Amino acid sequence: MKNKILIVDDAMLMRIMLRDIFEASSFQVVGEAEDAEQALQIYKETHPDLVTMDITLTSSSGIDAITMILDYDRDARIIVISALEQRNVVMEALRVGARDFIIKPFEENRVIESVRDVLCYA
């Protein structure tokens, strides 16, 4: 059975790129969202094994989305994938419950390695 992934990013191109990476590595993308409310709704509907989260979303922040998802499911596994490199944003994402933080632009191998690590050791 394939692990299910929810992709949360405000950029359609990034969502497409991540979907292609995951599907090529035998993961199942069960949904895509561009803001915190959509992310939570899709999470509730699909119960993914892992969520990838951008920090900058259309009408909210990734930090808000992480908090909302973890309030719903404290065992949710979330990896932040964002271009924001400020230390305080990284630390805040990890503080609220993200399991890893990947900086854009990223290498495909780094994304898959992180996903597998978080799924195996969660």
CATH class category label: Alpha Beta
Order of helices and strands: EHEHEHEHEH
Number of domain modules: 1
Specify the CATH architecture.
3-Layer(aba) Sandwich
Low-confidence stretches: none
CATH fold-type name: Rossmann fold
Number of strands: 5
Mean pLDDT score, rounded?
Answer: 93
For the termini, the CA-CA separation is 18 Å
CATH superfamily: Response regulator
Strand order of the largest sheet: 2-1-3-4-5
Radius of gyration: 13 Å
Helix content: 40-55%
**Structural class, from secondary structure content?**
alpha/beta
Helical stretch count?
5
Estimate the global geometry from the Cα principal axes.
Answer: globular
Sheet-strand content, in percent, reads: 15-25%
Q: Mind describing the biggest β-sheet? A: 5 strands, parallel
Topology of this structure?
Elements: E1 4-8, H1 12-24, E2 28-33, H2 36-46, E3 50-53, H3 62-72, E4 78-82, H4 87-96, E5 100-103, H5 108-121
Parallel strand pairs: 1-2, 1-3, 3-4, 4-5
Brief characterization of the structure:
This protein has 122 residues and is an alpha/beta fold. It has five helices and five strands, in the order βαβαβαβαβα.
